[in-house]
Hints:
The protein has about 325 residues and is of the alpha/beta class. The protein is built from twelve helices and twelve strands. It has helices at about 15-25, 35-45, 60-65, 85-90, 105-120, 120-130, 160-170, 200-205, 225-230, 250-255, 275-280, 295-315; strands at about 5-10, 25, 50, 70-75, 95, 150-155, 175-180, 195, 210, 235-240, 260-265, 285.
Amino acid sequence: MAKPRVIVTRRWHGDVEQLLVDRFDTRLNEDDHPMSTAELQRALQNADAVLPTVSDKIDAEVLGVDNIRAKILGSNGVGFNHIDLEAAKAAGLVVTNTPEVLTDCTADLAMALLLAVARRVGEGERHLRAGEWTGWRPTHMMGTSVTGKTLGLIGMGRIARAVAARAAHGFNMKIIFHDPFPPRAEDLAGLDAIACESPQEVFERADFVSLHCPGGKETYHLIGPEAFKSMKPGAFLINSARGDVIDEAALVEALGAGEIAGAGLDVFEKEPQVTPALLKMENVVLLPHLGSATQETRKAMGMRVVENIEAFFNGETPRDRLV
Length: 323
Ligand code: DGY
């Protein structure tokens, strides 16, 4: 029997690409260019499985194309706000993602952002590389201590809990959180985490607010002017979730007005564009969406996609089926 045809929209970890080539009739995106709407539509018309990632916009327009051959979208990434799930379902597609395998890696990066912005790591490195360092002195580049402070988490899923564990056990931080769908008590074991009634309560009480909610309509601009006014003037905002949870223009205003002390951002409202004013601010740490970017994790994510599509083509339900 002919092998299912698989189109991969971007370059993936080499070991995963090799496995895909061995097991399927695989078409790789050799030059790693971002695919246009028309290319994504052609992929849906010409493959049994399309393997997109979080930067491919699989919206109703893409999915509205005629004569779709694909039966499954095996997305490489845990977030799925780039896919219109209703439109995918209507087009007869199964959709899968890659939860769990990137939890630790993303939590590590959230902590890296938190530490970097509080301790002025980016700013200090820029200062040194620019040849501006004149030597140690007691008042030089004083930052903000992390140990013992209150960490407020918006969303308390797997990644938030992994951040909480690092913060509580590594930095003796107090953990508070808000999640409209709170985790089971056993998932919070050992964290001493306090549930807050509203995001507002988290904003008011936290020294560091870290975002771990999904992107999409429900959370669009959740962090806007009102949130910034509620946060402590010395507080820091960390985002390793989705860019459009923050109103970036309001963030710039809040930073400029001193409503918060700084921000550590791995994701942006209009990726890969970044609001230009942020690039000029020293109290902001900016990373190019690196949450899951380690060799080990990117390989594990790709392997999870392979597992999902193999299950599908074997007539089983893929473990990470979304629709
Ligand atoms: C995801 O998986 O959703 C991240 O944003 C990329 O790892």
